[in-house]
Amino acid sequence: MSALGTVTTTEDGRLCLRLTRRIPVPPETVWPAITEARRLEGWFPSVVSTDFAPGAKLTFDLTAEQREHMGIGPDEDMSAEGEVLRYEAPRHLEYTWGEEIFRWTLDPDGPDGTLLTFVDIFDDRSLAAQMASSWHAVLDLFEARLTGRDVDWSVWDREAELRGEYAEAVP
């Protein structure tokens, strides 16, 4: 099981979720998995309109699985806009998703590994444990998919398992 992430408060009063993973593949392999729309399928919690690129305008929409889980009909518009703010392959990616800011940092970790740091900056304190447990589960799935491991759990079950731990850990 991967270690819990941390939630802190930024200088301007927003919340900052930080999760790290040591992944046994090089950054050059991880980078396309977080920047190419077709590679996001199967692990990322949204359908993304286009590949990430410098200055790209993005549209995010819920996956069919998310819609079903949340009881949202296919005709309800749940899309959000975003924009790539920083794109420095294969190390730094930063973009907005609605009002949130996401940062991905990939640092070499030994000859064939990556230390991935994911940051989500958001405002709603009442959602902090849910956000943390959800992204934790998503990154567990991401790592499994990237390294070719099968999973015998759903993101929703994993998120539910983690939510209590995050509820206790979030300030």
Describe this protein's structure.
This protein is α+β, with helices and mostly antiparallel strands. The protein has a single domain, classed as START domain (Alpha-D-Glucose-1,6-Bisphosphate, Chain A, domain 4, 2-Layer Sandwich). Helices cover 32% and strands 31% of the residues. It has helices at residues 27-35, 37-40, 64-70, 128-147, 155-169, and strands spanning 6-9, 15-23, 47-48, 57-61, 80-88, 92-97, 100-108, 114-122. It has an eight-stranded antiparallel beta sheet, with helices on one face. Helix 4 packs across helix 5. The longest helix is centred in the last third of the chain and has 20 residues, at 128-147. It is globular and about 40 Å long. The model has no long low-confidence stretch (mean pLDDT 92).
Low-confidence stretches: none
Q: Mean pLDDT score, rounded?
A: 92
Order of strands side by side in the largest beta sheet? 1-2-8-7-6-5-4-3
Q: Which descriptor suits the 3D outline?
A: globular
Helix tally equals 5
CATH topology: Alpha-D-Glucose-1,6-Bisphosphate, Chain A, domain 4
In total, the number of domains comes to 1
CATH class group:
Alpha Beta
* Structural class label: alpha+beta
Helix/strand order? EEHHEEHEEEEHH
Helix content: 25-40%
**The biggest beta sheet, please?**
8 strands, antiparallel
InterPro entries: ASHA1/2-like_C, START-like_dom_sf
Family: Belongs to the AHA1 family.
Domain Activator of Hsp90 ATPase homologue 1/2-like C-terminal: 25-146
Pfam family, one: AHSA1
